[in-house]
């Protein structure tokens, strides 16, 4: 990674939006990068909207507030409606296929439709859909290594969830494979 990468991750509360951003931020810190993680969520949390801005940089981050993003990981239609136009030209937009009613059209950005929830269910745990999405993102934008993501997961998962590390590792790899094998719908 050269320079700075600004990411918006958005969806409903309960979809793992904030934890996806936190895992990404921890992985970058493990690699010695500068990081900003700024969560935002509605008062209703689960079922309400949630988003977070993650900035990963090789140099100091001047401000955690940005209005345009290099990449977006979008998990629901209201977030797509809100953030689609905020992806910079040449940027990347990944979205969860099962929750987007009106898929975006490509206007100078790369768009990938990912079947994250379906793949997570195939792995036996719908809770890892966010990690499938993260794996897909990192295949296109390798700003942190999968090894750092797994180290971050070991740190952020509570003790009673450590048993989910193997399925999270499979989910991360599956997301990367989806993109590498082009099993995405554009």
Task: Walk me through the structure.
It is a single chain. The longest helix has 16 residues, at 165-180. The model has no long low-confidence stretch (mean pLDDT 91). This protein has a six-stranded mixed beta sheet, with helices on both faces. The two termini are 25 Å apart. Helix 2 (77-83) links the parallel strand 4 and strand 5 (87-96). Helix 1 (17-30) crosses helix 5, helix 3 (116-122) crosses helix 4 (129-140) and helix 4 crosses helix 6. The chain has one domain: Pyruvate-ferredoxin Oxidoreductase, domain 3. The protein has helices at 17-30, 77-83, 116-122, 129-140, 146-156, 165-180, and strands at 4-12, 34-41, 49-57, 69-74, 87-96, 110-114. The protein is 36% helix and 25% strand. It is globular and about 40 Å long.
Euclidean distance between termini CA atoms: 25 Å
CATH class value:
Alpha Beta
* CATH level-4 homologous superfamily: Pyruvate-ferredoxin oxidoreductase, PFOR, domain III
Low-confidence stretches are: none
Question: What's the count of strands?
Answer: 6
The domain count comes to 1
Question: How many strands, which pairing sense, and closed or not: the largest β-sheet?
Answer: 6 strands, mixed
Class by alpha and beta content: alpha/beta
């Amino acid at each position: 990674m050269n320079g700075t990468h600004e990411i918006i991750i958005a969806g409903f509360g309960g979809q793992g939006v904030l934890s996806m951003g936190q895992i990404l931020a921890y992985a970058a810190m493990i690699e010695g990068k500068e990081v900003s993680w700024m969560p935002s969520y509605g008062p209703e949390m689960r079922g309400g909207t949630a988003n977070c801005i993650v900035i990963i940089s090789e140099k100091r981050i001047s401000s955690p507030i940005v209005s345009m993003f290099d990449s977006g990981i979008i998990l629901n239609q209201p977030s797509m409606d809100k953030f689609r136009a905020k992806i910079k030209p040449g940027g990347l937009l990944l979205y969860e296929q099962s929750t987007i009613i009106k898929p975006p059209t490509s206007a100078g950005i790369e768009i990938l439709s990912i079947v994250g929830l379906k793949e997570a269910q195939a792995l036996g745990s719908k809770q890892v859909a966010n990690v499938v999405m993260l794996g897909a993102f990192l295949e296109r934008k390798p700003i942190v290594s999968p090894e750092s993501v797994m180290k971050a997961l070991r740190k952020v998962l509570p003790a009673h969830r450590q048993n989910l590390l193997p399925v999270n590792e499979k989910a991360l790899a599956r997301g990367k494979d989806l993109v590498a094998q082009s099993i995405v719908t554009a």
